[in-house]
Design brief:
The protein has 537 residues and is mostly helical. It has 21 helices and no strands.
């Protein structure tokens, strides 16, 4: 079934920006060349797969920590968070800032010590140690699918935004996608994890500078911060209560807090992109400091982007002549940041902000490329076809070929994710997160449930994915009003844990394959009937 194109993509292509000047062009070109140069520099140091995948496991905390920001915070969030504040208010941003310390405590003192005890390169090796090879392959395949969708979403969003702010028509979107994907693929292919992490540091500071320049520009134009600072709840902001049991309420403070803490735990405990950063460090204490650095980086970006949203709202509320054509606060929040970049930032400043968008785009794609390559190399090729790459040099060559192939897949996938409806925050929740929380259920059983079984892990994940899809696409499947995307995290997470533990109690050890198949078929039939009943009623 086809879904409408995202409002952002459809709207941004209607924006008629001014032409990018030569100063901006030089800055943008310098950013692209710097990214490629970092890859070339580190290419000389990548002689083994240990260096290519985990940087020799001797990194200190700062670079892996800042790299975690790129892993958890992408161009989607950079554009989406100011848009959220403009269109819906500051509740989501504020609740995330409150949730950050709780996520750090859970991950830093519970999950990281468990992960760092194991001599692993792929996170999914942990699953085989406890639940068997089939669960390892399931977890690895889920991660690969999830990250391919995520990278495709970033590429699609980045190309659309850059087209909007650089005086190009919609026919240039595929060309921008090819260019961005080529830059990300090239420096990931030749530079490995070191190039990916160092470019993430560059991206982080460019994002901070770009957001700060936007706030400074608006403040200068309006005569100070007080001119745009809101003093009351805006009339177009919908009600965002502290808490509500109604799944129709889009955002609540408690809902944001709970979903963000769950997201942090699930990502830190099951996502290879995050776990691979811990593995580049020397020990659990260093990995914990790296995660703290990443959490502080996320908090800093969320705070400054929240201020960007408030500044944009104040500026456009007082704009002489009213809002631009085709833009409204109630429907087009994600479009105001790109619109301001393309129309009101002075020469040079706009080039820096566009460079930040470029760096954010490729730094959001490259960690996924490197981690997907790691998982395919270790969990599929190394496990299923060990003779395919005997020497370390052959494994390194295979990894680089995989990066190139992954780049082509992401390029094709960017055309597909453009069909998913909703604003940027909702689109990411309705694509990537459908597999994100179910995947952590496998790790939860492996690490914390002594009686967990292969049967329980697989069926628990199936039920969890079904729950996530039902909530994410409730309106499409049932014709009823859309449910809040914030319910995907707690419901999918709870379903994974509950049914994973429940099915682990089924006595499957030592039974025949035929009987195990009948158990599996019965459980899946019950799930199918339950879905059909919910959809029809």
């Amino acid at each position: 079934m086809a879904f409408p194109r995202p409002g952002l993509a459809r709207l941004l292509l209607l924006i008629a920006p001014r032409a990018v000047g030569w100063v901006d062009g030089v800055l943008i070109a310098a950013c692209a060349l710097t990214l490629l140069g970092i890859g070339i520099f580190y290419a000389r140091r990548q002689r083994t797969t240990e260096e290519y995948f985990v940087s020799g496991r001797n990194r200190r905390s700062f670079i892996p920590g800042i790299s975690l920001v790129a892993a958890m915070f992408s161009l989607v969030a950079y554009i989406g968070n100011p848009g959220e504040v403009v269109q819906h208010g500051p509740v989501l941003v504020c609740a995330v800032l409150v949730a950050l310390p709780f996520g750090y405590l859970a991950v830093g003192w519970l999950l990281i010590p468990l992960i760092m005890r194991l001599p692993i390169t792929s996170a999914y090796e942990l699953l085989e140690l406890r639940l068997g090879r089939s669960v390892r392959l399931l977890g690895a395949a889920t991660f690969v699918c999830m990250r391919l969708v995520w990278m495709s979403l970033i590429l699609c969003t980045a190309a659309t935004v850059l087209v909007a702010v650089m005086d190009c028509g919609p026919q240039w979107v595929p060309a921008f996608e090819i260019g961005l994907c080529l830059v990300a693929t090239t420096y990931t292919l030749i530079g490995g994890i070191d190039a990916v992490m160092v470019t993430s540091v560059l991206e982080f500071f460019l994002l901070i500078i770009g957001a700060a320049l936007t706030i400074a520009s608006i403040s200068w134009r309006m005569g100070g911060v007080a001119a745009w600072w809101p003093h009351h709840w805006q009339a177009h902001w919908p009600a965002q209560p502290f808490f509500s049991w109604s799944p129709l309420v889009r955002v609540t403070a408690v809902g944001t807090f709970v979903s963000y803490v769950i997201s942090t735990i699930c990502g830190a405990g099951s996502d290879q992109v995050n776990i691979q950063r811990y593995l580049t460090t020397r020990d659990a204490a260093t990995a914990r400091r790296a995660f703290l650095t990443g959490a502080l980086g996320i908090g800093s970006l969320m705070l400054i982007l929240g201020l960007v949203g408030l500044a944009l709202l104040g500026f456009y509320s007082h704009l002489p002549g009213g809002l631009p054509a085709n833009l409204s606060f109630e429907r087009h929040g994600d479009a105001f940041f790109p619109h301001y970049i393309s129309h009101y930032l002075p020469a040079g400043a706009s080039g820096l902000v566009i460079s930040a968008l470029l760096a954010s785009a490729v730094s959001g794609i490259s960690p996924g490329m490197n981690s997907v390559t790691t998982v395919i190399s270790k969990d599929f090729i190394g496990l299923l076809w060990p003779a395919a790459a005997r020497t370390d040099a052959e494994q390194l060559r295979t990894a680089r070929v995989l990066v190139f192939v992954i780049g082509l897949v992401v390029l094709a996938g960017s055309r597909v994710v453009a069909l998913v409806g909703g604003d940027l925050i909702e689109v990411s929740s309705k694509t990537v997160n459908l597999l994100f929380y179910p995947m952590f259920g496998l790790f939860f059983l492996a690490m914390f449930v002594p009686f967990g079984t292969t049967f329980g892990a697989i069926l628990g994940m199936a039920y969890s994915v079904a729950a996530a899809v039902l909530i994410g696409y409730w309106d499409t499947l049932t014709g009823q009003p859309r449910l809040s995307f914030q319910w995907i995290a707690p419901v999918s997470f709870a379903t994974s844990l509950a049914f994973g533990c429940l099915f682990s109690l089924v006595p499957t050890r030592g039974i025949s394959r035929r009987r195990l198949a009948s158990y599996t078929g019965t459980a899946l039939a019950v799930l199918s009937l339950a879905i059909a009943w919910v959809v029809r009623t």
